[in-house]
Amino acid sequence: MFTIADFYPKLLTAKDSVLKKVVETVCLTCSEPYHPEQDEETGEYVQEVALWLIETLSITIKAKRIYPVLFEAATTLIDSNDKNQANTGFLILGSMSEGCNDKLKKNLQNPIMNVLIPRGLNH
What we know:
Elements: H1 2-7, H2 9-13, H3 16-30, H4 46-60, H5 63-78, H6 83-95, H7 101-107, H8 109-119
Helix pairs in contact: 3-4, 3-5, 4-5, 5-6
């Protein structure tokens, strides 16, 4: 997937449905709980690899294409009652910040003011 994101980003943006499914799958992978035995083989957690992929997608695909899809996935996770998913939503916002910083600045108050502040930091 990293190869496609790095060298062939147009394959992912050819159809909106493909990009949306890839982002949804990667975001849900990020929200899975860590398992200690998971890193024995590769030395890395699949959740960390998925976050790197989100960062790569945000850098290699034009912000006007990737931002709406990533932001929708992140806010959906943030709105979740599941603690792992809510935390992952904010991690995704951080991971996409390098590639989508201008667009993110304009909409950052939405998840912060509407979700984090009312729930408090101990959600």
